[in-house]
Amino acid sequence: MSKAIESAVFERRVNALFAPYTKPGSPGAVVGVMRGGEIAFCKGFGLASIELGVPIRPDTRFRIASVSKQFTVTAALMLAAEGKLKLSDPPHKYLPELPPLPVTIDQMMRNSSGLPDFLELLRLGGHGLDRPARPEDLFDACTRNRHLNFAPGSRFLYSNTNFLLLGLIVEKLAKKKLGEVLAERIFKPLGMAHTSLVAEIDAVIPNLATGYLGDAEQGFRRAAHAYPQGGEGGLTSTVEDLLIWSRHFDRPTLGKTLPTQLAAVAPLTGGKANNYRRGVAVEQLRGLATVGHGGLWPGFRTEFLRVPKADLTVVVIANLGSIDPWRRARAIAALALEGNSRMKPALPPISATEIKLLAGTWFNAEEPSLFDLAWRNGEAVVTQNGMPFALGRRGGGWLAAERGSYEFALKPGPKGTLKVDLGAGRIVTFGMLAKRAAVPADLAGTYVSSDCAAVWRISRDGKDWTMEVGGPLISGGAPWIVRGLDADTVEVESPGSWIKATQLAHLVRDRDGRIVALEVSTGRIKKMRFDLTP
Prior knowledge:
By secondary structure, this protein is of the alpha+beta class. The chain is built from eleven helices and 29 strands. The protein has helices at 3-17, 69-81, 105-109, 118-123, 135-144, 161-174, 178-190, 239-250, 258-262, 325-336, 352-356, and strands spanning 29-35, 38-45, 47-49, 54-55, 62-63, 196-197, 212-215, 219-222, 235-237, 281-285, 288-297, 300-307, 312-318, 360-364, 369-376, 379-384, 387-393, 399-401, 409-412, 418-421, 427-432, 445-449, 454-461, 464-470, 480-486, 489-493, 502-509, 515-521, 528-532. Strands 14-15-16-17-18-19-20-21 form an eight-stranded antiparallel barrel. It has an eight-stranded antiparallel barrel with strand order 22-23-24-25-26-27-28-29. β23 and β24 (464-470) form a beta hairpin. α1 runs antiparallel to α10 and α2 (69-81) crosses α6. The N and C termini lie far apart (78 Å).
């Protein structure tokens, strides 16, 4: 088969992956594939604007969210090379408004700092991405917090706070807005003419796609988001510009060692590996190492995927929240690498029989941690803290979260238990939650957290327990639901238009058995204290 025919077959297979989004009135995605420095495929599917009927094209701009992090890190590494910044320094050296916590800038770059995510800090006070906020509100959330999720450097836990603060440090040292620094030092020199950081949510950005939620069956709706964005996720870009950026990894011109510094290894303090490097994550695709990052924002999803040994890059950017670029990018990479001798055979898929034997709600009170395991839409799905994620087969009998942003793997343990690997060598035993306990009768009261300035007022109305939530940016709103788990733990569900999150609250009692506080754990906050007020 000639190369031309191979290319035609590859194009048809990629087209088939996105065929559902070519139907009239559907948002969609753009795909870019680069091999050996040559663009092998670049095409848009669906509409950038349903209202205006504008199609997605290779030059359509999207919000690429957390793919921005590697650019913020790159700017910081440039300043470090100039002697203006030390990676071993704490962030409060450069931003004195921050509390003096034992965190380093390098740990921030690697998501091993232990700093809670500022999005979660504000959400615990009832504020969400659909409500307006100012840049100073986000920074205040960081300066108010004195809580660390764990000893810095000991674990990985994804946190946008790390990169929001890193961007502000770059601004402070460069004496310019982060968007200006990135444009002058990275985008203009590389020719990334359609990439920019625009923090203001109401700014006019030419050719920017509209983000949507929903699907063809339920209908589409515009995604609401009102937070300003910075170093953690503020870039808008195109598929072509991201392919230009990928080529810089292979032939660096901004700084010969910058790509190496981004992917540099730094084990956790216990000697365990941290696959999150500096603004990029390292994973495996059937035996081949990948380097890249995903992005998630209401109505926008991105996957920037490099397979260095194969000189392959795949970029998928969607303006529909129900599209999964992570999976689609890897499916496209597998098609592009078909016949490559370095590709290991795919492991057998997880079967419904395996999961149905383990399906149910699993709980560990000491973490505390709770998750549901189910067979849904033809795959194994874990739902934890309100967020569903799919499992894939791994070696040694483990079933693990597909994405590197989740450290989670499970396999059957003795006597009807599950062993769950939560990262950094922590393998925890979970038991099936056969029956939920009632909410403890003495839970009612007002709880306050100094770390996030949230106020929780828990009360009972007949059999139902609810919670009124207020914080530094909002008071009132729909009540949160409180459900029992065991004698010392409750689950709290917070409503949301995009994500309906859940969190666990462990009851802290004094020697006389009276409740004095709650320790609250979410996906990105662990054991934050809420004190019961007199």
